[in-house]
Design brief:
heterodimer; A: 611 residues; alpha/beta; eight-stranded mixed sheet; six-stranded mixed sheet; 20% strand; B: 345 residues; three-stranded antiparallel sheet; 12 helices; globular
Chain lengths: 611, 345
């Protein structure tokens, strides 16, 4: 191992150990197999019972550009992005000069000693290991696999320095490679060799370490897109049409894994179909066709895919055809940054479609809601006969999160107001496709194929009367549009209610939705200690109902926190309650990175005084 | 059933009126009306159960016409150029239903070219009719992409661009049923429609359907007069339904060709001047290109091949339509979820 560079140990700073409360970032090049090493570390910590979360900050690229994988270890269970990582794994020559500057004093740098001209700092602990040399312990022959195995060297060093159990690493590798010894053993050999090297050569000069806990017992770990795909499969999705686009692709990938597993009949025939369309426009067109026919139909998209779907969104609203779009939000405008997260599509999605279109939005914030909304979205689409957009984001969709196991849906599927041939035979009055018989704005529909002479109607995006006949009459148009408004008001009562958490004595309200909840929860814990108790209303859907108004009325001020430039949900809420518009203050975070608790505290400090 | 007294009825006891739709709002003499009438006649002739067929369209004059036939069939007037995607979803959700899609040359040849090529490529089982008149009507007369290069109309001037040939596009995309006809040739339209409804995948019918308002000058290849005078049928066509095989006794291989369709019905092609083989793709391409170069208005079954699976077959979906699955089929059991949750711990 002549090429190894071993640092002269720093003079050990007498610092108390930092246990299970720090984060590290692995800086590697995209497409070099580092994801396996990172997920292995994440899962090993999870297996040790320590709350942990990983965020992949990756480029829009197949191979070569820098990528950073952040892992936060938190005994208190915080999973928001921390402002700073204390430990850097420097395995990418292209970003190392910038990366090392980011470390705080007293931080740790585990670096690939193959990097020529490796920068140094004397206020951090540095440990070097040759990825190239240690990869040889894998005894892999394929040069590509050999280069992938190099990443396992930092897994071994980190395991030794932090006290991550080798058994947990082996378990994690087994999970990753689905128990294939052919893949597990070579990687584990590299880990062990690097571990032993670290043990023999490095004197630990940093305070960071992990200890087993029991806080992940009974929890699962999955990505949001996997949870959503599983939720849709258990929600009865029978037709999926889609076009690949980051970061929504992995949702349909997950469905392509789950559907054969859960929804094949004994003879191998499928109770579902997945069509990869020629574009997003065709994908949503197929969804409308299938929804009209009575199937539970959905698509998943992101970014400009939503723009392409806007014409059919308006048609779903106006012709009243059930449809579900999972929008895994990334940041725009235009192509924007395909691999960065945000909540930038709220206003656009809410009004998606020209004319007076308005759509129902759902906001999942964690794995459980991704799973649950898999069913909820279809139930609402069929109950309301309209488009439902589920507004997830890249952070939730593509990263691994801990969760309680998912609850099996308690309610049966809600299929909405569908008349069968028998229903039609027993009716006293003639059926009209767009007649509001119940006063809730929701008409009755028939499905194509219904064997009754009066079952048929003509679904159309053109103006129509209560019997689906083309009409250009002013009063017919107005009546129909007002009924659709009435239906939207019915939706307010049917969508998932907001979740409110209160702190004693709070005069300040926080309103947010989706993945910002993790940073907000952490910030609120810190703020109450600094003398600012807050109440938090987490929206789970739009349109809003009266309890949102009541929340705003009950607080001196309500801060609307979200990940976009202009405060999009803030604007929608102001429109909904103009009489209280000035009580709503927008705190919008724009840079494409997940929210941090520090940002929330600093943003609030601009408006509120606390210690 | 509901046929008026003394009216002729078909085997289902239905009269022709039972297959009609709302009164047309297209111009008097529009070719599209005549096609709608042939659809009504065919539905009556083949004893169609109206609820077993859906009708779809995009946007444009042609796309209005599904309102004017089969009033007892569910219909979907979709978006401009997007009928194929809606049809794909609908027919995957219920693959037992038949479908007639009506589109136009703008709807298919311009805005909808992508979706047209892809529905053909996926081979969704439906009859896809292009009512082709070479002009935009609802927007008051502009050349469409299927107008012939050099065509000069009084109001529109000279068309500088080569035409998009719908049949060539269909063939290139892998279509197994490509036909061209003329709205003025009622019998041929009917026989092709019947055969198309028996096809296993996407059947494309490119029907030249004159626009009496914007493209009916006698020299225009898409006018009535031109069509009547120049139509060059490649063969005479008789559709032979399954139960009428007995009449094929008169079949003479010297003067006729018999093509068996996927569902067992047959088409009897009577030879005319040329000995045309619609089962040879290369010949079909060559003949279409030659016709275009020489300005010939060939009609008939240009290409037939039922060997490709349709999309529902490719997708191996269960026999029960996806739209009619039970809750037990749609939602896996609680046990399955629990087991999987255990695996994730």
């Amino acid at each position: 191992m002549g090429t190894l560079v071993t640092e002269k140990p720093q003079s050990p700073a007498e610092r108390p150990p930092v246990v299970n409360d720090f984060s590290f970032v692995a800086a590697t090049a995209n497409g070099t197999g580092s994801q396996t090493a990172n997920i292995t570390l994440l899962r090993a910590l999870f297996k040790m019972g320590i709350p942990v979360h990983g965020k992949n900050i990756f480029p829009s690229n197949i191979q070569g550009l820098p990528t950073w994988y952040h892992i936060r270890v938190s005994k208190d269970g915080y999973v928001a992005r921390p402002s700073q990582a204390e430990i850097l794994i420097a395995f990418n020559v292209a970003s190392v000069h910038e990366d090392i500057k980011e470390l705080p004093a007293g931080g740790v740098c585990i670096y690939n000693s193959d990097i020529k001209g490796m920068p140094t700092r004397d206020d951090i602990s540095m440990y070097g290991i040759s990825g190239r040399e240690f990869a040889k312990y894998s005894e892999l022959k394929d040069p590509k696999l050999l280069s992938y195995a190099a990443n396992m060297s930092y897994v071994g060093v980190l395991a030794q320095l932090l006290d991550i159990q080798l058994e947990a690493i082996e378990e994690a590798l087994n999970h990753q490679f689905k128990g294939k010894a052919k893949a597990v053993i070579p990687n584990m050999n590299v880990v062990k060799a690097a571990y032993n090297y670290s043990l023999a050569n490095f004197q630990k000069t940093d305070p960071y370490q992990v200890e087993p806990m029991d806080k992940t017992n009974g929890l699962i770990m999955l990505t949001g897109n996997e949870a959503a795909g599983l939720g849709a499969v258990f929600g009865g999705a029978s037709f999926v049409a889609w076009y690949p686009i980051t970061p929504s692709t992995s949702l349909v990938d997950a469905m392509n894994d789950y559907l054969p597993k859960f929804r094949s009949e004994a003879d191998g025939k499928k109770t579902y179909a997945v069509v990869q369309a020629e574009d997003e426009l065709a994908a949503i067109g197929m969804v409308l066709g299938a929804g009209w026919m009575g199937a539970r139909a959905m698509t998943a998209t992101s970014g400009l895919g939503i723009s392409l779907m806007s014409e059919f969104a308006g048609m779903s609203y106006f012709a009243e055809i059930p449809a579900v779009i999972w929008n895994i939000q990334r940041i725009g405008p235009s192509t924007g940054l395909p691999t960065r997260t945000g909540q930038c599509d709220i206003t656009f999605a809410y009004y998606l479609g020209h004319g007076d279109t308005k759509n129902v939005l759902l906001f999942p914030s964690d794995l459980k809601e991704c799973f649950e909304f898999g069913s909820t979205a279809f139930d609402l689409a069929e109950s309301l006969q309209t488009l439902i957009l589920v507004m997830s984001d890249l952070d939730l969709g593509m990263n691994n999160w801990m969760s309680e196991p998912f609850d099996y849906p308690k309610e049966p599927l809600k299929r909405g107001k569908v008349l069968t041939a028998e229903d039609l035979s027993h009716r006293a009055n003639p059926w009209g496709r767009y007649l509001d018989e119940d006063g809730d704005g929701i008409p009755y529909r028939t499905l194509p194929g219904t064997d009754h002479p009066s079952a048929a109607y003509f679904a159309r995006g053109t103006g129509h009367d209560e019997y689906a006949k083309y009409s250009e009459k002013a009063d017919v148009w107005e009546r129909n549009m007002l009924r659709l408004k009435r239906k939207f008001d019915t939706a307010r009562k049917l969508v998932p209610k907001p979740v409110v958490t209160q702190q004693a004595g709070a005069k300040v309200g926080i309103i947010a939705y989706g993945t910002t909840k993790f940073a907000i929860d952490e910030a609120r814990d810190k703020l109450i200690k600094r003398g600012l108790p807050t109440n938090f209303m987490r929206l789970r859907a739009l349109p809003m109902d009266d309890e949102v108004k009541a929340f705003v009325a009950a607080h001196d001020k309500s801060y609307v926190i979200e990940l976009n430039r202009d405060g999009q949900a803030h604007g929608i809420l102001q429109q909904e309650m103009p009489e209280m518009a000035t009580k709503l203050i927008s705190l919008a975070h724009l840079d494409g990175m997940p929210l941090t608790a520090d940002w929330v505290i600093e943003a609030l400090a601009q408006h509120e005084s606390f210690e | 059933m509901s046929a008026a007294r003394n009216e002729k009825v078909n085997a289902l006891g239905l009269g022709k009126k039972d297959y009609e739709g709302a009164p047309t709002t297209l111009c008097a003499g529009c070719g599209h009306n005549s096609i709608a009438n042939q659809i009504v006649q065919v539905a009556y002739d083949i004893n169609l159960k109206a609820h077993e067929l859906i009708k779809l369209s995009g946007i444009g004059c042609s796309s209005k016409s599904p309102t004017y036939f089969l009033g007892r069939s569910h219909g979907f007037n979709s978006l401009h150029g997007r009928m194929p995607s809606v049809a794909t979803g609908a027919l995957m959700a219920n693959h037992h239903l038949q479908a007639i899609g009506v589109s136009g040359d703008g709807d298919t040849g311009s805005i909808g070219m992508g979706q047209f090529k892809h529905i053909v490529r996926r081979n969704v089982r439906m009859v896809y009719i292009i009512e082709n008149n070479g002009v935009y009507g609802l927007t008051k007369g502009q050349y469409s992409a299927t107008a012939e290069e050099g065509l000069t109309l009084k109001k529109l001037g000279k068309n500088p661009f080569p035409e998009i040939n719908i049949c060539l596009e269909a063939l290139a995309a892998g279509c197994g049923f490509v036909a061209r006809s003329f709205a003025g040739d009622f019998k041929q339209v009917r026989e092709l429609l019947k055969a198309a409804l028996s096809h296993r995948g996407t059947a494309v019918l490119d029907i030249i359907s004159p626009c009496v308002t914007f493209n009916d000058e006698d020299h225009s290849p898409k006018s009535y007069k031109y069509g009547k005078e120049h139509e060059l049928p490649l063969h005479g066509i008789d559709f032979v339904p399954l139960q009428e095989e007995i009449i094929i006794d008169s079949y003479d291989p010297g003067t006729s060709k018999l093509v068996e369709l996927h569902d067992g019905s047959k088409i009897l092609l009577r030879k005319l001047e040329e000995d045309y083989d619609p089962t040879n793709r290369a010949e079909a391409l060559e003949r279409l290109m030659r016709a275009e170069e020489e300005g010939e208005f060939i009609t008939g079954l240009i290409y037939y091949d039922a060997s490709r699976n349709n999309l529902a077959e490719t997708s191996q979906i269960i026999d029960t339509p996806l739209a009619h699955l039970s809750e037990a089929q749609l939602r896996p059991s609680s046990d399955k979820l629990q087991t999987y949750m255990q695996q994730l711990m």
